[in-house]
Amino acid sequence: MKKVVLITTMMSLLMTGCNQYASANVAFNDTKDHWAEAAINAAVKNGYVDGYEDGSFKPEQNVSRAEFIKLVVSAVKLSLPEAKDGEDWYTPYVTAAKEKNIYHTEDFTSGDLNTPISRLEMSLISLRATREDMQQEGVLMDNDSVMFNATKTGLIQGLSRGELGPDKPTTRAQSVTIIERILKLNKGDTLPVDKIALGNAEIALRGTNFETAYGLRQAVTLPIEHDLNKDIKMKIKEIIFFDSSDKESPYWDLLANSERQDNLDNSYYFAYKIEFTTESERDYNLRVKDNFKMVGWFSVTSDSSRRVSVIGSNLVGSREGYVIFALTKDSTEGAAYQREALRNSAYYLGQKRFPLFIKE
Question: Which of 112, 167, 322, 335 is in Cβ range 3.0-4.6 Å of 304 for a Cys bridge?
Answer without folding.
Answer: 322
